[in-house]
Amino acid sequence: MPGHAVPLDGLPALVEAACRGFGLISLHAERHVPDTCWIGTVTDLRPKSLRLREVDTGARWSTDATKFRFKDITRVEFGGRYEQTLREFAGPYR
C-alpha cells in the first residue's frame, strides 16, 4: 500500500488521492444500479461530478469516460486484489 493518507472528508479529494495512490478505484451507485460497480481511473473532477475512464474485465481501457454525479455514488473501493490485478494487466491510462 502507498505510504500516504487518503482523505475521508470529501468524495472529490478521496477519489483523487485513491487514483493517485492506487491507480484504479471501484465506484458503486447502489441506489440506482445495485450489484454493479465500475472500475477505472478518474480523468476529470468537477464540483458535482467526475468522469471515470473504465477498465473492462479483459483489462482493456475504454475509449470514453463515464460521468458519475457525486450524489449518486454510494461506495468507493480501492487497493483490492481485483483492482490491483486489472491495473497490472491494463497498465497505466495514457
Radius of gyration: 12 Å
What best-fitting shape do the alpha-carbon axes yield?
globular
N-end to C-end Cα span: 22 Å
Architecture per CATH nomenclature, i.e. the level-2 architecture: Roll
H/E element order: HEEEEEH
Please state the structural category.
Answer: alpha+beta
Percent helix, as a range, is 10-25%
User: Mind telling me the CATH class?
Assistant: Mainly Beta
- CATH topology (fold) name: SH3 type barrels
Beta strands, count:
5
Q: Let me know the average pLDDT.
A: 91
The description of the largest β-sheet is: 5 strands, antiparallel
Please tally the helical runs, counting DSSP H or I stretches of 4 or more residues.
Answer: 2
What is the domain total for the residues? 1
Q: DSSP strand (E) fraction?
A: 35-45%
Poorly predicted residue ranges: none
Strand order of the largest sheet: 4-3-2-1-5
